[in-house]
Amino acid sequence: MTIDCLAVIGAGMIGGSLARALRTAGFCNDVIGFGRNADALKKAVALGAIGRFAADAAGAVQDADLVVLAAPLATMEPLCRAIGGALQEHAVVTDVGSAKRSVVEAARTGLGAAFPRFVPGHPIAGKEKSGVEHSSADLFRDHLVILTPVPETLPGALQLVRDMWQAAGARLVELDVDHHDRVLAATSHLPHMLAFALVDCLARLPEQERVFDFAAGGFADFSRIASSSPVMWRDVCLANRSEILRALDRFAGELNELRTVIERGDGDGLLEIFSRAKEARDAFSTRRGR
Amino acid sequence: MTIDCLAVIGAGMIGGSLARALRTAGFCNDVIGFGRNADALKKAVALGAIGRFAADAAGAVQDADLVVLAAPLATMEPLCRAIGGALQEHAVVTDVGSAKRSVVEAARTGLGAAFPRFVPGHPIAGKEKSGVEHSSADLFRDHLVILTPVPETLPGALQLVRDMWQAAGARLVELDVDHHDRVLAATSHLPHMLAFALVDCLARLPEQERVFDFAAGGFADFSRIASSSPVMWRDVCLANRSEILRALDRFAGELNELRTVIERGDGDGLLEIFSRAKEARDAFSTRRGR
Question: From the candidates B224, B229, B260, B281, which should be mutated to test the interface with A, based on the most A CB atoms within 10 A?
Fold first, then answer.
């Protein structure tokens, strides 16, 4: 199925990529954007991501059949309040946030009567680069998108959002909101915390160590995600705080176990941990096909 | 300068790559190998990494002008003892181990009178794949090699090893032994511990979480080094134990600081840590030219 008018709130890398994918796929006739950064909106028009942009969020959504909230997590509640009263009766709203419990609460409060037409979503795709200039129409192709409908979510709204992601080439899976937040804390939020903490830890060493001069490809791969947007990750930490703390504590326990094994010079214990990790990582590579 | 006969002890990815690079560069006329795995030695001959192989380490080095020890760290001391008495009077010995203090001690004990002709070395290049079948002649091209000569090291021996690495296309730097072990603990050994610990931590979650199904490119990059050889990393942990423990403790302190900032919901504190890390990581990318 296709729609007439799509609104994309937030003209960044993710919103821009989705808009470009949907225009390329002919999923919508018209894409109207809004964001707080006028330069980014102009760039989004120049890149063909959006056809035009509105002066405010309510203006952007008033003609929309489908609204995608691709704005920072911290802005979701005011944004939902701003558009709640301007939506058409049939309009469906979805989002792309990396944490889902906080967005569901923001939508419940802000969208009011439109909440059953809100479908929480999270594409598992991204880059460490932000900004619409890094958007691409095939960002989501063959990537997973997790939808986390709640009991109130209307089946028709869910179906439209499924159609949208399928038009963008994504694969879909549904999870419970809390399961999503717990799993993503482990597979995405925790690794980002570790990468940020490692690079910061090294950056704070005495100048004469010049450690980065001696870092190789392994370090480069490991730490790439520490180039991600600090603002986005601040928001994720605040939005998914309790699950991230749980994941950090679990990891700290594991690291302490490893430390104990190293300290007592227990070669067999090290081999056991490293072999179990290698086996899991190799299996992950095989499933990903690379 | 070039030599007549090179001996490579250890027919793995690193030893095989160096032998191939030096044969390609015409640095030596003859390469003789030795390793504990006869199949690997046959593969090394088939791949053209070595010309032939000996029945034991002493036999491999007896005609060599230059000996490269590319065997596991844990075998360095018995290996040095095995070759010490078989070396020619002028033969120079070097190694490629990821930790240097333990190798220097093994060489001091094992090589005896030949110790001044031992040049400790460590190429900052590698892959998560081991085995001679993953070797390549250009592995070291434009990569850094750290040499850590000690006061006893003879200038002529150091020069020959410099010539060898330059023939393989590497860039050279000299560091003090302890400085090497401290810096590598931070930039290489610590990230590997974190990657192994993270993957193991996730692998131990309850089956129904299926967390790896929801992991994206960031996780893939971050955890790639957890596919590295468990045996090699066991040896590195045992060889560089005290510096790795120091690095783990420094990291645990940093992670605990980050945890506190997340727990108190301190957005500005998070922004400060993430921004400092991003700046350092971006500067690292810029220096690497990608």
Answer: B281
Which residues in chain A touch residue B251, judged by CB atoms under 8 angstroms apart?
Answer: 197-198, 201, 255
Other beta carbons within 10 angstroms of residue A203's beta carbon come to 17
Distance, first Cα to last Cα, chain A: 34
**Which residues contact residue A246 at a Cβ distance below 8 angstroms, ignoring those fewer than 6 apart?**
A182, A185
Question: What span, in angstroms and rounded, lies between the C-alpha atoms of A117 and A141?
Answer: 25
ipTM: 0.91
Cα(A96)–Cα(A241) distance, rounded to whole angstroms? 18
Q: Order of strands, edge to edge, in the sheet holding A121-123?
A: A121-123, A144-147, A171-174
For chain B, the helix, strand and coil percentages under 3-state DSSP, each to the nearest 5: 60, 15, 30
User: What global pTM score does this model have?
Assistant: 0.91
Place of tokens 């990608």: B290
Yes or no, beta carbons of B245 and A263 under 8 Å apart = yes
Strands (DSSP E) found in chain B: 3-9, 28-34, 52-53, 66-69, 92-95, 118-119, 121-123, 144-147, 171-174
Length of chain B measured in residues: 290
**A258 touching chain B per CB within 8 A:** yes
Answer whether B188 sits within 8 Å of A124, measured CB to CB.
no
Gap between the Cα atoms of B158 and B94, Å rounded: 9
Going from the first residue of chain A to its last (290 residues), give the mean pLDDT of each consecutive group of 10, the final group possibly shorter. 93 94 96 94 95 96 98 95 97 97 97 97 84 93 96 98 98 96 95 96 83 85 91 96 97 97 98 96 81
Interface A–B counts its CB contacts (< 8 A) at: 307
